[in-house]
């Protein structure tokens, strides 16, 4: 199969490595010529250019750009494609993207391979990145079934655990386990920075260990990515934050009331439930 | 030096391994005879019994029991000790403990080696656990200076980064970077469990990856330990939670107002500030 990949960063580059390994022919598009050269050298693409029009012969286009660029990319590429080509993306929000992109290309199938790493960019790309990871596919009711099947097959061939659901259901589920953690973790760092006593703030920094490191990790990550989660999944992130705030208030109340048994019960419930998420 | 260690779990066992390596003679006390046998076999103690009275010849006692048992242990052991013996502990809260324990033994010096691991118990004990980790010593104004120096020297010999501060300052600093993360993380798990739609809840569990894993880790840990943090450091944990809640409300407001620039600015501030804690 001829596959085009727009955006040769961590995800685009890793997809290219896997698709070539699986015998597909991979055409890359990047903004900078330097990235094209690097992608060819890394074996992530068979060829690469800086122009979307170069993808006019591909059967599937994977849009691996930042979220804000997905819809404009689909719009720009549409006039160049064969009528039966399929476009999919890898954005971490789906509701806003799937509806808009499908306007430009009815054979657009939203996708979200859930395989982040701390490192970003082509240099971090690796084969088998998606093996055993969730890959969510989010067709609209009117999305052609054969286009959905094409993306499902590609995702399955990557070794991913493939899920197919409504874009809204995706966004709601992802808000809980990906976007809400960023907001919760961000507020933790902010709170610590607001300690007014300089000695306490200094010692807090000195004492911080694995508990703080892990809980603050995603809130101290890429600011643009975190903002995009909030922006493109606003309704669901807000919904999850409201529930979170209720749980927090509940805990504050238990602390004020010295209801230690209730707090221990909640923590025991967490300990029992957490493995079902991992 | 003759050192007694009461409680042969992760911390007590690890201290024993290090102190024996450093040439001290280590006397262990555990509740169960089986633990005594295991501690001797592991090289964590020179000898061990189940009775506190066996420590009548030691120069320093390290109380490594759960928080709730520290004060009762100091009270019980006091009548057996030489007048110039020093007692210290390893509890993660200090205000409540230091005041109460000093009533029973004026040469009590509060201590907190910050070296947790996920695993607990003697089997998890290891040499060099405290190397390069913070070890906080929290004397009261009336604590004899030579007793403080004894504990400072022992902690320094372990290779730890030794800090000496007021118990209240310790509890305030630790609330930020150790106890608040547990509360924040606990409420995250609770919120996710409160998603009413079964399909969304199921998919959230399936999609959860490293972001959720790290942010939920301490909230899904040992329930008794988490409850003890809340119980014995109630005032400071509540104080940190109130600030946290303000930051969270601030973020919710920015989301409602679609103030994406402010959210990105906050996240950028986090990204810049987080390394100062690690």
Sum this structure up briefly.
Two copies of one chain form a homodimer. The first copy, chain A, is α/β, with parallel strands linked by helices.
Question: Secondary structure elements and their pairing?
Answer:
The structure is a homodimer of 278-residue chains.
Chain A: E1 2-6, H1 10-21, E2 25-29, H2 33-42, E3 47-49, E4 60-63, H3 67-77, E5 86-89, H4 95-104, E6 108-113, E7 134-138, H5 145-157, E8 161-164, H6 167-193, H7 198-207, H8 210-216, H9 223-232, H10 234-256, H11 260-273
Parallel strand pairs in A: 1-2, 1-4, 2-3, 4-5, 5-6, 7-8
Antiparallel strand pairs in A: 6-7
Helix pairs in contact in A: 3-4, 6-10
Q: Keywords, please?
A:
278 residues; alpha/beta; Rossmann fold; 6-phosphogluconate dehydrogenase C-terminal fold; 2 domains; 11 helices
Overview of this structure, please?
Two copies of one chain form a homodimer. With 278 residues, chain A is α/β, with parallel strands linked by helices. Chain A folds into two domains: 2-165, 3-Layer(aba) Sandwich (Rossmann fold); 170-277, 6-phosphogluconate dehydrogenase C-terminal fold (Orthogonal Bundle), CATH 1.10.3660. Chain A contains eleven helices and eight strands. Chain A has helices at residues 10-21, 33-42, 67-77, 95-104, 145-157, 167-193, 198-207, 210-216, 223-232, 234-256, 260-273, and strands at residues 2-6, 25-29, 47-49, 60-63, 86-89, 108-113, 134-138, 161-164. An eight-stranded mixed beta sheet of chain A has the order 3-2-1-4-5-6-7-8, with helices on both faces. In chain A, helix 3 (67-77) links the parallel strand 4 (60-63) and strand 5. The longest helix of chain A is centred in the middle third of the chain and has 27 residues, at 167-193.
